[in-house]
Amino acid sequence: MRVHLKGFTSTDAIVVIECECGNTRMLDEAGGFPAERIYVFRRGVPIKNLRCCRLHSLTSETLSSKVPECRERYRIILQHEHVFPYLEIEHISPRPNEQILEVETIKFPEPSS
Fold first, then answer.
1. pLDDT in tens, the chain (113 residues)
2. For residue 96, is the peptide bond before it cis, meaning its omega torsion is within 30 degrees of 0?
């Protein structure tokens, strides 16, 4: 898993997660819409569950070759434990185990006075 920070302010972050398969398009499991850029608001939803959405971005030629669906899953957790919130991006194993395989942390910048 690679996490790319595309934009960052004191109120939100735009994150792109690169899956183990190389895909950057993720499906938000709550909203059901695929996106490459994931918006995380400082005072927003505390947890976003995502899964790789590789099949939506493949060409019909690749689909006809019966490439198996990628089952990688990710979770973004908005932590408020400290004075300044931060994001934890977790790579988790497929259900039902859901073990944490890898974690990356991103801190929000301190608000300017």
1. 999 888 887 778 899 999 989 999 999 988 778 899 998 887 778 899 999 987 644 455 555 666 677 889 999 998 876 677 788 999 999 878 889 999 999 887 776 65
2. yes
Tokens of 25: 């398009």
Q: What are phi and psi of 11, to 5 degrees?
A: -110, -20
What is the rounded CA–CA span in Å between residue 87 and residue 80? 9
Structural contact between residues 55 and 62, judged by C-beta atoms closer than 8 angstroms: no
Tell me, what DSSP letter sits at residue 68? P
Q: What is the pLDDT of residue 113?
A: 54
| Letter string b/e over residues 21-33, b meaning 16 or more CB atoms within 10 A of that residue's CB | eebbbbbbeeeee
List 49's β-bridge partners, or say none: 75
| CA proximity to 73, closest of 23, 4, 13 | 23
Structure tokens at 32: 């059901």
Phi and psi at residue 62, in whole multiples of 5°? -70, -40
